[in-house]
Specification:
Elements (H helix, E strand, L loop, with lengths): L8 H4 L9 H16 L4 E2 L14 E8 L5 E6 L6 E3 L8 H14 L16 E8 L6 E7 L7 H11 L3 E8 L11 E6 L4 E5 L2 E5 L9 H15 L6 E5 L5 H7 L4 E6 L2 H13 L5 E5 L2 H10 L6 E4 L8 H10 L3 E6 L2 H13 L2 E9 L9 E8 L22 H5 L15
Parallel strand pairs: 1-16, 6-7, 11-12, 11-14, 12-13, 14-15
Antiparallel strand pairs: 2-3, 2-5, 3-4, 5-6, 7-8, 9-10, 15-17, 16-17
Bound molecules: S-adenosyl-L-homocysteine.
EC number: 2.1.1.190
Protein name: 23S rRNA (Uracil(1939)-C(5))-methyltransferase RlmD
Keywords: Methyltransferase, S-adenosyl-L-methionine, Transferase
Length: 422
């Protein structure tokens, strides 16, 4: 494979594997996962990308004014708040990079000042682009320090003239001294305020703040593997924990009896509920809240799950979640992880509590970076039998009324779905 060079490599620091041939990167990732997971079972060969360039469907740029007055956009230098100018990136979507460059070019004529983090003066802080690779839809989010964008209609018009492929533009207000990109408040100034994309034959609506995998090509590979490992027959009750906008659960719903999704982020849950409708999927319900607390309630109510998919953030899962998962005693747990270190930590717990790692598949979702995704199949050690785990709860904490769980999602769920766990 041709080895492309990145002009910002030395300063950006985003790609730890810059300059290393792709095949070699895969080898190193394989070795890393193997070292961490082989104590638990078999690690399969890593599934690499066919084309490791420009795979990112989500691109973020921070804006800054240099000492000589030049406006730049790019990334923070690692560990600092210094902006490294980036005009092209080997892993980002090229269309998104072109839009960011053109936004930079428009600022002067629209007299839009970029924000200065020290003086807290200026307007434009960041631009975030999301592109649906399958749908072609593009979202542009202008992150501003205050809510008013002068001549916003003309700005949008000028931007659309350069990029008619943009389908929605939003203003997000971030007036805090923070390293978070997006603030709370959001206004749609063009289009529907979200994009749609397709994965594994399902359509998904994606909001600015919802989590959506950044590499859709490999996501299909990853989800495909996760579903295959679950070996669904159509009879199962499936739990999709840390479900985001409901992707895995919805794909699983086609071959399961029933799916329950749980997710903390409100916007993502709202997307998930609408996504189920969009796809005409009726055997799925979503709950908003902490996955650990939710699982604990399920376990206390002696609920059942045959298969648990869990896809926690980089920090991994929690003991509360896993303890309850073990009490629910599903036949299979499919753990999808973007951090092999926390995965190994959690596997240590689960394998001590009656589960066995059957196989682990590393999947490369993030070429040129040091990150690696892994999907693991765990099976209950004694099929057909329940595992007795001693779990202690405080005095008087008996069965929690079912309402307690359903209340969390009332705002998001269509009426007929409010009743939970019949
Ligand atoms: N399965 C989804 C999302 C995975 S990312 C997908 O493949 O697209 C991890 C998700 O966990 C994020 O959506 C994040 O908002 C959510 N999350 C983080 N902490 C959580 C918690 N304590 N309880 C439930 N969800 C949580």
């Amino acid at each position: 494979m041709e080895n492309k060079k990145c002009p910002a490599a030395k300063k950006c620091g985003g790609c730890q594997y810059q300059g290393i041939p792709y095949e070699e990167q895969l080898k190193q990732k394989q070795t890393k996962v193997r070292k961490l997971l082989e104590p638990f079972g078999k690690v399969k060969p890593i599934i690499g990308m066919e084309n490791p360039y420009h795979y990112r469907n989500k691109v973020h740029a921070v804006f800054d004014r240099q000492k000589n007055g030049t406006i730049v956009s790019g990334v923070y230098q690692e560990g600092t708040h210094k902006v490294v100018p980036v005009t092209e990136c080997l892993i980002e979507d090229q269309k998104a990079d072109a839009i960011i460059n053109d936004i930079r070019g428009l600022l002067k004529s629209f007299k839009i000042k970029v924000y200065n983090e020290d003086t807290r003066y200026g307007l434009l802080r960041h631009v975030l682009i999301r592109r649906g690779f399958a749908s072609g839809e593009i979202m542009v989010v202008l992150v501003l320090a205050s809510p008013i964008l002068p001549s916003k209609n003309n700005f949008v018009k000028a931007l659309l003239k350069l990029h008619p492929e943009i389908t929605t533009v939003l203003i997000n207000v971030n007036d805090k001294k923070t390293s978070m990109v997006l603030g709370e408040k959001e206004t749609v100034i063009y289009g529907k305020g979200y994009i749609e994309d397709q994965l594994c034959g399902c359509r998904f609506r994606i909001s600015a703040k919802s989590f959506y995998q950044v590499n859709p090509v490999q996501t299909e590979v990853l989800y495909g593997k996760a579903i295959e490992l679950a070996g669904l027959t159509g009879e199962e009750r499936v739990l999709d924990a840390y479900c985001g906008i409901g992707t895995i659960g919805m794909i699983a719903a086609k071959s399961a009896r029933e799916v329950i999704g749980v997710e903390l982020n409100k916007d993502a849950v709202r997307d998930a509920v609408r996504n189920a409708k969009l796809n005409g999927i009726k055997n799925i319900r979503f709950f908003q809240g902490d996955a650990g607390a939710f699982m604990r309630k399920m376990a206390m109510q002696k609920e059942k799950a045959d298969v648990v998919f869990m896809d926690p953030p980089r920090s991994g899962s929690t003991e509360e979640f896993m303890e309850s998962a073990v009490r629910l005693s599903p036949e299979k747990i499919v753990y999808i992880s973007c951090n092999p270190e926390t995965l190994a930590r959690d596997l240590k717990y689960l394998t001590k509590k009656g589960y066995q790692m059957k196989e682990a598949w590393p999947v490369d979702m993030f070429g040129f970076t040091g990150h690696v995704e892994t999907v693991v199949l765990l099976s209950r050690k004694l099929p057909g039998s329940h595992i007795n785990v001693k779990v202690e709860f405080g005095e008087g904490r008996g069965k929690v009324p079912l309402k307690a769980i359903s209340e969390r999602t009332e705002t998001y769920k269509p009426k007929e779905r409010v009743k939970f766990l019949s």
